[in-house]
Here is the input.
Amino acid sequence: MIPIEILQKIRRIQITTAKKATDVFAGEYKSVFKGRGLEFVEVREYLPGDEIRSIDWNVTARMGRPFIKKFIEERELTIMFLLDASRSNCFGTVNRLKRDLAAEVCAVLAAAATKNNDRVGLIVFTDRIELYLPPRKGTRHVFKVIREALYREPEGTGTDIPLCLEHLNRFMTKSTITFMISDFYAAGLRKPLSIASKRHDIVAVHVSDPRDAEMPDVGVVKLDDSETGRSYLLDTSDPAVRKEYAAKAAEKAEQLKKLFYAVNIDKVSVSTAEPYEEAFIQFFQRRKMRRGR
Here is the structure.
């Protein structure tokens, strides 16, 4: 049984994210993520101005006058969220933990999808699949997605992105819009991402904290690797140590950038130190410009 105070908090987040989905992402989500095909509606008589290529010649031959096939765009989409719940996301030094930021991003995108009558599904993963919610529609289902994104207590500690993508491909045989929300502290990503991106439209949402990229001068500190359990002593008063730390972080960021480009995956970067709305607005605008909309 979930405590009443947690349910109230989830409801507040649901209301907040739904408002952001309307006020901040108004029209952007719908214009970027469209249906991938046409759905037949009816046959009707030809009218001046109709396209000749729409004529249904079989019906025309039977009726003795021209008829056309009428189609509408298939609007309904399936949106999947792959949410990294590994221990490295239980970290944050500014406004919130990376995990909380990831969960809110998941919530606001789910709210935007629901407003467009899309189906929403969720996979929470660590070094194992922690939870799979099949795609469904409706406010009640989105409430469940938000609840699990915020308060699912994982059993695993590490990060196995290839396993998560394998699970996605096994259960989602048709194309989806997939948001993978993670800090991407994982190896061996190129092949599984390349395979998955050929079937699904994958968007990598890279979650970070300022201390992932830069270490302040706070003397000798003990650092614990939350995923492996190993501990390290680091003398942050040494400029060379801080420089090396920043250089390795920059190298990792550049490797991720090149990886996503190589496998044709869009990337959105969000930080615990900044509002995420602007990052997504810029992402939507880039997608529209690239597609000439």
Summary: The chain has ten helices and ten strands. The beta strands are 38-45, 67-73, 78-84, 119-125, 129-136, 177-182, 201-208, 220-224, 231-235, 266-271. The two ends are 47 Å apart (CA to CA).
